[in-house]
Amino acid sequence: MFFAGNIKFLRKRRGRTQDDVAYALGMKRSTLSGYENKVAQPNMEALVALSEYFNVAIDTLVKVDLQALSESHLRQLESGFDVFIKGKGLRVLVSTVDAGNDENIELVPEKAKAGYTTGYADPEYINELPVFQLPFLSKYKKYRTFQISGDSMLPVPDGAWVTGEYLQDWTQVKTGDACIIVTLDDGVVFKVVENRLDDSRELILHSLNPLFEPYAVQATDIREVWRFVHYISSEVPESAADMQNVARSLLELRRDVKSIKDRLETAKE
User: Fold this and answer.
1) 223: how many CB neighbours lie within 10 A of its CB?
2) Do both 131 and 36 map to the same domain?
3) Cβ–Cβ contacts within 10 Å for residue 179, how many?
4) Which domain holds residue 17?
């Protein structure tokens, strides 16, 4: 259990003395000192009071070593994006930092994607990934770059490197956002998201390429969500006019195929 170390860490992080916190919570300083030094155990009322004071859920205060979290993760917690408060399972992101304690951007190449679904929470796996920095991105957010494959998201080409911002709170995803979704069944996918978490606890994933049908993924099958920031590719994108012509042709082809299927079904009857 990490309760004692956590409340001491959060108090010092906010620049508060034991007297400050004890006075705000209506308890004796010696009582708070006892909690921090593991010589006393808080009752439920004290746990609730400390949870509300630091804006961190009780489960997190007790079960998670906050001192081991990255700065970006701590800022998310302090901003109210505590996953226990949201009523979801705890998602602690494994990350790496550089010599200056700044967040790295880990690269997940195509050959490593197969193992990412099981290795995303494994520090040894994450530490083996190559890393880099992009100075124009916020140092207070967490980013990761994935190499995509296939043509479902054209004009983003096959083999492009797509960087996403880590989202701990999936309700932040807006319909129309492009995201990298890590799922149990489909692995790492890059799609445009339709958010139906409130209605049916699922995301509908759409491709930019109209040849690919949208499909649903249940929240229970999702492991990580990274909101699209940018992509890097050595290929020059095709002109918008060419892409519109391709899309139009694909849509017409899909209509023709559907028409043929409908006629076949009618003939069978």
Assistant:
1) 16
2) no
3) 25
4) 3-68
Given the DSSP bridges, would you call strands 187-196 and 215-218 parallel, antiparallel or unpaired? unpaired
| pLDDT the model gives residue 91 | 53
Which residue do the tokens 């559907």 mark? 258
Q: Which residues contact 59 (CB under 8 A, 6 or more apart)?
A: 84, 90
Residue 264 lies in a domain: no
Higher-pLDDT residue of 218 and 131 is: 131
The answer to whether residues 242 and 178 touch, using CB atoms and an 8 Å cutoff, is no
Separation between Cα atoms, residue 33 and residue 141, nearest integer Å: 33
Q: Are residues 63 and 180 in the same domain?
A: no
Report the CATH number that the domain containing residue 17 is assigned in CATH.
1.10.260.40
Predicted pLDDT of residue 88: 43
Paired with 181 in beta bridges are: 189, 225
What is the pLDDT averaged over residues 112-117?
90
Phi, psi of 146 (to 5 degrees): -120, 140
Is 109 found in the same domain as 49?
Answer: no
Asked if the peptide bond before residue 155 counts as cis, ω within 30 degrees of 0, the response is yes
Is the domain of 214 the same as that of 154?
yes
| Number of domain units in the chain | 2
Nearest to 171 by CA among 146, 145, 199: 199
Kindly give the residue spans of alpha helices, DSSP state H, lying in the chain: 3-13, 18-25, 29-36, 44-54, 58-63, 71-78, 110-119, 123-127, 197-200, 240-268
Rounded to 5 degrees, what are φ and ψ at 94? Answer: -80, 130
pTM: 0.59
Q: Are 40 and 31 in contact (CB under 8 A)?
A: yes
User: How far is Cα 158 from Cα 149, in angstroms, rounded to an integer?
Assistant: 5
Confidence grade of residue 242 (pLDDT, cut at 50, 70, 90): low
